[in-house]
Amino acid sequence: MGIRVSVAGASGYAGGELLRLLAGHPEFDLVAATAHSQAGQRVDAIHPHLTGLDLTFAETTPGRLADADLVFLALPHGQSAAIAAQLPDGVRVVDLGADHRLIDSGSWDRYYGGPHADAWTYGLPELPGQRELIAGSARVASTGCYAATIILALAPLIAAGVAQPADVVVVAASGTSGAGRAAKSHLLASEVMGDLSPYKVGAHQHVPEIKQATGATGLSFTPVLAPIPRGILATVTALPVDGADPRAVLAEAYADAPFVHLLPEGRWPHTAATLGSNSCHLQAGVDVDSGRLIVVSALDNLGKGAAGQAVQNANLMFGLPETTGLSSLGVAP
């Protein structure tokens, strides 16, 4: 018997991706998958791509989850903290929601509202020193999907002092799975196909998380809904300091990062190349007119942006190689 694992919120898109990854993980044994309205349904009735996984959704209760060494919480924002507080101290927890990401209670109140829970160790191993912190933690708050895409592009530039933190502009497009599985009229295929539309302009909830993790002090972020199921493409620009080469900074920052790939010069990221993987693809340059630094970043919002990132964190928490059960290679076509 390996490390016993439970997943809360397993009927959603991120939860389904977690189940897929865990089913193939050599050290994690999936013992429970819980859901709300889908409790009592077979997993493969909700996730047909998981046919062969002999498991039925149970109700999401602390007692049902606690019979495990590790619990993943793939619940809507604001619902994880109450469940986590009732789990035994000996159970390690990775939260895919936002409940435990933000240190500042004012930022939580402004972008989410409701009670502010304590901040846990932030679950992005590629940040300096973060692998060691995650490995020594029993509670880890995994990243947001947009946040992971943007932080990986921006954090090394600010840390190296080559990008001005007060003037960062991001435009990023995400697939529809990033909005969750709940039926919403604006996410119907007839509404989304053949269209691009901005949303939460000037007030997206991942802004304080990105600023907290990168040191950015001024961030303008415009998210765009793209007519694809999964994937994020972010274009991050910032004013330079002393004309440094952003590619050199990124190459040094991620020289030993198994899942972050700086592409060969002249080749720009695209979402399809990251699908099904735990990878983030980066490319950088300088705008010849404005002089702004440009980094384009792509990842699978359900992979490195959610379930894959959570498994990477869990691997570190249990002393496993962070690549265990994860692939850096995408799926095509």
From TrEMBL:
Entry-linked CDD domains: AGPR_1_actinobacAGPR_like, AGPR_1_C
GO molecular-function terms, A-Z: N-acetyl-gamma-glutamyl-phosphate reductase activity; NAD binding; NADP+ binding
Domain named Semialdehyde dehydrogenase NAD-binding: residues: 4-135
Chief localization: cytoplasm
Any Gene Ontology biological process: L-arginine biosynthetic process
UniProt keyword annotations, A-Z: Amino-acid biosynthesis, Arginine biosynthesis, Cytoplasm, NADP, Oxidoreductase
GO CC annotation: cytoplasm
Reaction catalysis annotation: N-acetyl-L-glutamate 5-semialdehyde + phosphate + NADP(+) = N-acetyl-L-glutamyl 5-phosphate + NADPH + H(+)
Keyword Glycoprotein belongs to the record: no
TM annotation in the entry: none
Cited Pfam families: Semialdhyde_dh (PF01118), Semialdhyde_dhC_1 (PF22698)
Active site: 145
Annotated localization: Cytoplasm
E.C. designation(s): 1.2.1.38
Annotated SUPFAM superfamilies: Glyceraldehyde-3-phosphate dehydrogenase-like, C-terminal domain, NAD(P)-binding Rossmann-fold domains
Pathway assigned to this chain's UniProt record: Amino-acid biosynthesis; L-arginine biosynthesis; N(2)-acetyl-L-ornithine from L-glutamate: step 3/4
Protein task: Catalyzes the NADPH-dependent reduction of N-acetyl-5-glutamyl phosphate to yield N-acetyl-L-glutamate 5-semialdehyde.
Similarity section: Belongs to the NAGSA dehydrogenase family. Type 1 subfamily.
Cited NCBIfam families: argC
Protein name (Swiss-Prot/TrEMBL): N-acetyl-gamma-glutamyl-phosphate reductase
Species this protein is from: Micromonospora phaseoli
